[in-house]
Design brief:
Elements: H1 2-27, H2 30-40, H3 42-67, H4 72-92, H5 114-120, H6 134-164, H7 168-181, H8 195-219, H9 223-234, H10 245-265
Helix pairs in contact: 1-4, 2-3, 3-4, 3-6, 4-6, 5-9, 6-7, 6-8, 6-9, 7-8, 8-10
């Protein structure tokens, strides 16, 4: 009961502050500062949002732990940031540029996304188990769906698009590696993750980041990446799969193989 009271208090206070912020931002910062920063340098714009996201999510994760309800405050932050960026892009007419549109390539060309679905379901390969109570589970899922949206938009949308103006190859490499290295924050944000576990996570994040950027670059849509990323993260709340080197190797081979097949078979996208 206390958890539910804390949850609703957090949501009410958080969303009240968020709605006020968004209202003011849309009238001032949204049209002035953000647009000015974006038009001056897309790369700087991307890097600023990487910083806002990493710092903001870490702060609100810590607040969630203080409240005592798993992911409660960070879920509010995730929803707020997602809505803010989505409506800003819609207002500026940039949804299609950042891939928030239908794929330009049919699903058949992606092998009907079957390999991606298998990769996405990795956390429940070994069975299902509950790790949080009902309220914590709901908050965790909301947070992770937002994480999927925000990380794909920032790393694959903003960063990749900014760098692809000069070099597609470097854009693919940097967006993938930066996405992977961003997970190093789990060592210092109180997640309880050990060094070895974090290094494995970083390595896999680089590889799956590479796959996601290929899907976005060649398919023209960020939505398959957003959905896969969000669901993959969310299912960790139900994972009964034990970590093993065999599992990691299988995953890495599957991710790389699928990415290579797509690179070989999908038509090259037009630069923009």
């Amino acid at each position: 009961m206390r958890s539910i009271v804390f949850l609703f208090a957090t949501i009410i206070l958080g969303m009240g502050a968020v709605l006020t912020l968004i209202d003011k931002a849309q009238a001032n910062f949204d049209e002035a500062e953000m647009k000015k920063l974006y038009e001056k340098s897309e790369l700087t714009f991307a890097l600023v949002w990487i910083g806002i996201y990493c710092v903001g999510m870490s702060i609100f994760d810590e607040l969630s732990r203080s409240i005592g309800v798993e992911s409660s405050a960070s879920a509010v932050f995730g929803v707020a940031a997602s809505l803010f960026l989505y409506f800003w892009m819609k207002q500026q007419g940039r949804l299609e540029r950042f891939g928030l549109c239908k794929p330009t390539v049919p699903a058949k060309a992606f092998l009907f996304y079957i390999p991606l679905i298998v990769i996405t379901l990795q956390n429940v390969w070994g069975g299902v188990a509950m790790h949080y109570d009902a309220v914590g589970t709901v908050c965790f899922i909301v947070k992770m769906l937002c994480v999927g949206f925000l990380e794909e938009l920032i790393f694959r949308g903003f960063l990749f698009k900014a760098m692809s103006r000069d070099s597609i190859k470097w854009a693919v490499v940097v967006s993938s590696v930066t996405f992977g290295l961003g997970h190093i924050i789990n060592l210092i944000n109180g997640s309880g993750m050990g060094v070895a576990e974090n290094l494995v996570q970083i390595f896999f994040a680089v590889l799956i980041g590479f796959l996601y950027v290929i899907i976005f670059w060649r398919g023209g849509s960020l939505w398959p990446c957003v959905i896969s990323h969000g669901v993959l993260n969310s299912l960790s709340a139900f994972s009964a799969t034990e970590e093993s080197m065999v599992r990691v190797v299988i995953l890495c081979v599957l991710v790389v193989a699928y990415a290579v097949v797509l690179l070989k078979t999908l038509p090259k996208a037009k630069a923009n």
